[in-house]
Hints:
Helix content: 25-40%
Oligomer: single chain
Amino acid sequence: MRRKQIRNGGGKAAGLILIQATLIAALPTFVAARYEAKPAWNIFSRDKDIELGKQYSAEVSKQLPLLPESAPITRYVQTLGRQLVAVAPEPRYPFSFHVVNQKEINAFALPGGPIYVNLGTIQAADNEAEIVGVLGHEMGHVIMRHATAAASKELFARFGLSVFGMLIGRGAGGRAVEELTNFSVGSYFLKNSRTAESQADMVGTDLMYDAGYDPHQMAVFFEKLEKEDKTGNSSVAQFFSDHPNPANRAEAVSREVGTLTPKTYRADSPEFASIKHEAAGMKPLTAKQIADIQSQPNPTMGQPAAGEVMPNGSFKTLSHSAFQVTYPANWEVFGDESSSVLIAPRAGMTADAVAYGAIINGFQPEASGASVTLGDATRQLLDSLRQSNPDLRVIGHDEDIRLNGLPAKVVSLTGDSPIKGPDGHPLLERDRLITCLRTEGTLFYVIFVSPDSASRQLAPTFDKMQNSLRVY
Length: 472
């Protein structure tokens, strides 16, 4: 079962339009001439930036715990991002916006448009413009093509003129580019110079201004993080490692704003308060917890020894803010009292998949008409799970049960296990999905996961865990 982070909780974009000087129109315009710097020399084409961004974005989705596209916080960030995209200069990049379920304050942009912001960044923002400032800054890195420009400089320094072999796919240059652009989160592509930071600030300033947000708030947010960094706050250390602080950042932003026509800026949207409230109630994973998960084997694995994955007969109890459950004492708990939880033997999981264990989480269904029913919410959850597990299939019909006195459903599922057999093909996986509606309308669910060959042996353990569940 590929893990999908589903958290509890909750026509055409305006382009740069050329008009006659005698025509007066209230159209959003990104005046590129306001900022004199141009993207640096680059051996990569713009299309290559976009191609690399798509490639690396697929890797990010495997390496980092992303909130789902359907999560309210993700949808909110995407709405803010679209407002900036609408005033971005031509030619436009296919920007996309994602939220990483990580505690540390940080954000990063990949070549060609994918932008990621940590949940901790949203938790730290005091107003909507601060979040917009982070997004605008990261869009500045994409627009100025900082990632591939830096890679071009590095390649030329290492291989000289032979690097141009990449343009026709031959020679040392081509091999070097392939070597250099092998992606991992936190790699070379995500490190920025102070010059790049200053340029991204200026582009972000103009984007914010054109979208109606106060650009000063970008500098205010970064200065706030700088003060936290000086106090030794470890949650901001990675931000300044990836975004070295340029000198006089606030003054530079103020000078740029001073060249623009004064205007009244947007206030916080009505959604900001609710999103801040939801984010405050979440406890995202730390960088160390994510690194521990990433250190697991590759997403495909051989059959582990029974002693490494089967329950040893002893049990512990996990008390969570939303539930309580008994689980095998030799299995580990990943997550904490306010996050989604994975309970599994370490040998029975990989960086992004579970072969043995239980996934316990919440899902926010979309209500249609009156209040959503348990059956409707369960079907919506299954549709969402299939997005990351396209081979997932329902066996038979769902069964109505009681869970801790609440109406609940049991659904049997099958799919491909991350464990490969001797022939190299995935083993059959057998899953048990339990769902029930909580009083505030969110869907509580548990997925018990095992290879089909071990399902009967694990059934008594999963029964004990199911019977011990207390949902609050």
